[in-house]
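Supplementary Note 3. Input sequence used for the single-chain structure prediction.
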Amino acid sequence: MDLKTAALRTVSSSLTATAALAIVAGPAHAQDYVVQPGDTVSAIASGHGVSIDNIVSSNGLNSRATIYVGQHLTIPDTTAAAGTTHLVAEGDTLWRIAATYRTSVSRIQSDNGMSASTLIRIGETLSIPGGTATPPARAAASSTQYTVRSGDTLWSIAARSGTSVAALAQLNGLTNPSLIRVNQSLTLPAGAVAPPSATTASPVAATTSSPSTYVVVRGDTLSRIAGRFGTTVSAIVSANGLANPSVIRVDQRLTIPGGTPTGLVGDTFLGRTYAAEVVAAANVNKANLNAMTVPTRVQMQQLVISTANDMGVSPALAQAIAYQESGFNMRAVSPANAIGCMQVIPSSGEWASDLVGRNLNLLNPQDNVVAGVAILKQLQRNDAPLETAIAGYYQGERSVRERGMNKDTVAYVASVVGLIDRFD
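The predicted structure, written as discrete structure tokens, is reproduced below.
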């Protein structure tokens, strides 16, 4: 059978729960948590309002409570009660609602007669099984505040304060943990230690060594240069004694403290230059991936195949996309902050999380592949033409629908279609 025909026939219009997604295997009142860089069991327990013993026993951890980045932990829900209701508001997702009430997505779906593909609507009232009568307070009584400084990332703050990125994001209602701003006030979980006043090097800066020299070119700004080298504007200003950070001139030579773009992300791709804050976020992710142990390209390819099979997507199509995007390289990060093997940007990762009903960590190899494959499956709903689905993965579904395929999209689709035959 022709692969294109087979791919279209295997796609259904709804996402079903599959073995690849059924990761939570603990108590009925539980949620799934993916270990982040800098996490400890004590910080996770504090962030979720449970005891260390509960996490250790629910996950069969050893006597030292050893965990590793990317590991899935079952967080037992110790607050189960008679239940309550929630009025869906703008921006709500099932995962966020479940996290707010300390229950699970699957329990909300079950109690409301929803399938894995059911969408929630603004104004809809949901029954919350075992949920507290009101959402838990964001800050514990003993929590402390931290003011974001230049050079900070959520990861560096979490690592220095003894908590986790996930705990900080949830406590402060951050929908995109990669975006925090200078002078922003963050609440630290109870038990976390406020970082020292002095700015500490971020993971990106920690990957660099001796200073280097950079010659300013037309269109440069200090913010863009800092993002390119994985450092901060204030560090460049200090190293060069600049009186006005807004004024630099073409051909001016700047000393970049500890700066070398080796192994990091530039700000330009395919002729397009990306905003400094996007590149900076990409470099944080790149540095974290560089510091992690990730599967080999062969192992990533096998993960793509098995996940596609589990989720009802053509393995040849999934492999073609992964190869076109990254060559099965889990450490790949683009200037647009497209992450990992499947090159998923954070906003698309949130969409994929909603599709599968749980939070996906794009730095986790399994979650990265699940996100990409879930998006592919959604793009093929309602028997959409294969070429249109491929274009949507690259250009964006709405953009393709409203504007048609861009010139570079046409070339992308042709390349992926050719790769499908290779992986069939």
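The two ends are 11 Å apart (CA to CA). Residues 1-29, 132-142, 197-209 have pLDDT under 50 and may be disordered.
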